[in-house]
Amino acid sequence: MPVFTLFFILALLITTATRLWLSQRHLQHIRLNRDTVPPDFSDRISLESHRKAADYSSSKTRLNIFHSLLDAVLLLAFTLGGGIQMLADCWQGILGDGLWRGVALISSVLVISSLLEMPLSLYRTFVIDARFGFNKMTLRVFLADLSKQTLLLSALGIPLLLGVLWLMARMGEYWWFYVWLAWMGFNLLLLTIYPTIIAPLFNKFTPLEDQALASRIEALLKKCGFKSQGLFVMDGSKRSSQGNAYFSGLGASKRIVFFDTLLARLNHDEIEAVLAHELGHFKHRHVIKRIFSMFILSLAALYLLGWLMPQTWFYYGLGVTTQGTDTALLLFMLASPVFTFLFHPITSLYSRKHEFEADRYAAENASSEALIQALVKLYNDNAATLTPDPLHSIFYDSHPAAVQRVAHLRSLPGND
Prior knowledge:
By secondary structure, the protein is mainly alpha-helical. The protein is 71% helix and 4% strand. It is built from 16 helices and 4 strands. Helix 2 (47-78) runs antiparallel to helix 4 and helix 4 (99-131) packs parallel to helix 12. It is globular and about 65 Å long.
């Protein structure tokens, strides 16, 4: 057995075992704390709501265990099980050599994976979310979303994939740099067109009609030096009863979006505080920093792929005998998460640091107590567990745990 095959199997075993172990820890920690509301929340969240959040989080975690096992089985089937090689031979016979063979190979792997994972998505939406009262989506809406997503991915993804494969084949030794430039341009384009072209395909966006709230928001935006193309309300209740708010877009396309479910639940002080938190991300340039980090990491990844592509052991070690730009790109896409999973705590820590900074900005420009009240309502309404396993949170959570976040807000100056 090739050395790289052994290395790959070992990495897959470590990654899968760690994911399963973290899930079991999370389930046990939630179960042990199910009957006790944390003291900071005992006067605002009932024991019944706390138990509901624990049960909801546990149900999602158990589903994630199946997802982890399915991911491992699919990866083995596509690589060492010969799936990629079989598909490559099939498309070779139909399309011969060329760019379209690569597009067909990569697309077919993605389609097969999506189809096999769809039952888990359906179960999450129509069983778990429905059981806990969150799902508002009908099967018709689900299928309509799926059709739109498929068409959109085809319209955007196939030209991108063709371009990437062409650059890999034609740009010589430094193809990875040209692919990186194309990838950067594509992502910046998506960020620019998402608010006005892509998002409206799935949801309805209407201008904020509450003039008193709009005036407060405009004053806050002016105070913080933020310019947007408008304040919009999204019909999030079409799919879920859970609430949220976000910024989207770059440059002149920036807009602020509130879920209708959020506006129905929070008062004006709380909405202003939530918006101030989002403005904190803008003021601290978190979006720019994350985009820059993504571009640096993608450049390093493409450089690594450029080094791996001519290495015969890379293909044979992953069960593929057909060497080419398409198989190299596909193997790298599938196998790299196995080798990078243990770095998740670094990216999660970076994200949680940004959340603390945005909370501080909100406390300075709005009200920390109003933000606490808003967060408690959102934790309660979204059935977010207040007692996640600390180690599980370190790996997966982009936001600080509820207890840590509220404690941090209460420790800020002016909140004595």
